[in-house]
Amino acid sequence: xxxxxxxxxxxxxxxxxxxxxxxxxxxxxxxxxxxxxxxxxxxxxxxxxxxxxxxxxxxxxxxxxxxxxxxxxxxxxxxxxxxxxxxxxxxxxxxxxxxxxxxxxxxxxxxxxxxxxxxxxxxxxxxxxxxxxxxxxxxxxxxxxxxxxxxxxxxxxxxxxxxxxxxxxxxxxxxxxxxxxxxxxxxxxxxxxxxxxxxxxxxxxxxxxxxxxxxxxxxxxxxxxxxxxxxxxxxxxxxxxxxxxxxx
Amino acid sequence: xxxxxxxxxxxxxxxxxxxxxxxxxxxxxxxxxxxxxxxxxxxxxxxxxxxxxxxxxxxxxxxxxxxxxxxxxxxxxxxxxxxxxxxxxxxxxxxxxxxxxxxxxxxxxxxxxxxxxxxxxxxxxxxxxxxxxxxxxxxxxxxxxxxxxxxxxxxxxxxxxxxxxxxxxxxxxxxxxxxxxxxxxxxxxxxxxxxxxxxxxxxxxxxxxxxxxxxxxxxxxx
Lengths: 248, 222
Fold this sequence. Notes:
The complex is a heterodimer of chains A (248) and B (222). Chain A is globular. Chain A has one domain (25-193, 200-247). Mean pLDDT of chain A is 84; it is low at 190-195. Chain A contains eight helices and no strands. By secondary structure, chain A is mostly helical. Chain B has helices spanning 2-18, 20-40, 45-68, 73-77, 80-85, 91-120, 125-153, 159-186, 192-221. Chain B is mostly helical. Chains A and B meet through helix 5 and helix 6 of A and helix 7, helix 8 and helix 9 of B.
């Protein structure tokens, strides 16, 4: 136990320790994101071969798939931080959860938008009420609900706890919503399209996709840490170290 | 404890009954919302039959959200809610009693009116029976889930729109189960599975939701 305890997990749960660490990490991850995205997009748009069925339009996948993954990972992460903030009352966890939400909502929106743009040439329509599209849309509403509740409550303590609780209720419901939507979709059988393409990928496609996923992660880390820093400064206006940073 | 819970139930019923205006508003909303579907879409009987389950269910869903506004607000304003939280009864039980009373007053009339709506949309009698049964099992789930949203937002200015945004994603599974039970009946498909799932959802939410509402209220009153 004592060995485990020596790892300073909780050190960065303190805002005054977190702030300089974030200062260090943000530029690293932001440049990492830019480099990875540059290589990934180059591979995806110029090196990867043209798809014999879908033509060039499949290339939107290099943005769409990472965005869709991120939208789901970030919600899970948000719910985890919400648990930590509710159960152990770690304030930093709440700040992290709140910082994750806008980025998660943005990725959900990008996934929906790029999905629609890809659907037009591939399926002949911008939108079909497919199970995945519908549950992604509902995920967007979950993000909006979290942010809406958080900003609607004037008292910060109550806002943080209420929104965290909502995020957890939402996370419990996500699988139920997902399976009910799949069930609904199979009942209606309105479309004979299948979103999953069984096509095998060439190496260039795979590498490009992987690079883009890592780029999205790096971008998320950088942006979320920066947003958390801004929230800390806003909340800790009275703390000496924070007011000194603000004055610079 | 039984006496205390029964007294609570009577109190809640009496208070809800005294606000007849609220009940009339919710029912009126339900009726007009259903009536707007044919006006907005078409009076074609075949089309109306197709959209009937969805139209009636969606109207019932919004009526539930509308009624939730009054679930805790008045008791919060005059301090009754905080006193009730201190009673020697588990808060979750106290809330369950409140939710049952709320359902009887605001949702049961909707369930009872649903057959009339079904007739307006040209449903057959067995389809109307399935529709009513699905609402009878489904609306308690809506109230139980909705109370979580109501507890989180009670006392906030302009909470109406917010509570809708919070709850509608959570209502999707219930809506899907309820409407597809009716449309499956129309297509001659067996609906045992629908009702098994609806029943399971009701049981799970009956067990878990009062605790979730209690947690949410504690956060609100903290």
